[in-house]
Design brief:
The chain has one helix spanning 59-68; strands at residues 7-13, 18-21, 27-40, 46-58, 74-88, 91-105. The protein is mostly beta strands. The longest helix is centred in the middle third of the chain and has 10 residues, at 59-68.
């Protein structure tokens, strides 16, 4: 039997990345991404939901993310889900995050406009593919 743990998200950073050095000397960077989902409810009214995903990336890629991405930047992340737990004040806490294998940078917010105009690209519909 084969098990699969794969996560793929594309969205915008909700905060600037934070990089720390591990005791081993390797770097780790954490950030979060917001993803939007549009759908029509049972009454046919357009709705939108936002989910927030915690991302952790290690090594050279952690340095690149910290250098080139900022709050509002677009990014595509592939990785695996991992849930950590700890106890705080006698209460067990949990955090599920994506441990990134790959981070692909999207267009900078100012680059998402049509060159020479103030017209921004329209947001894709829920069933449209998002090119990278």
């Amino acid at each position: 039997m084969y098990n699969l743990n794969k996560a793929m998200v594309e969205g915008n950073l909700t905060r600037d990345p934070e990089m720390k050095a591990l005791p081993s000397g390797s770097n780790v960077t954490s950030f979060s991404i917001a993803t939007n989902r549009r759908f029509k409810d049972k009454d046919g009214v357009q709705q939108e939901e936002v989910d927030f995903h915690n991302i952790t990336v290690f090594g050279k890629q952690a340095e690149s993310v910290n250098t080139y991405l900022t709050k509002g930047s677009s990014a595509y992340v592939e990785g695996r889900l991992q849930t950590r737990s700890w106890e705080k004040d006698g209460v067990k806490q949990y955090r599920t995050e994506i441990i990134a294998d790959r981070v692909q940078f999207g267009a900078k917010p100012t680059e998402s406009k049509v060159a020479g105009t103030d017209v921004a690209y329209p947001a894709p519909e829920a069933d449209e593919a998002i090119p990278f």
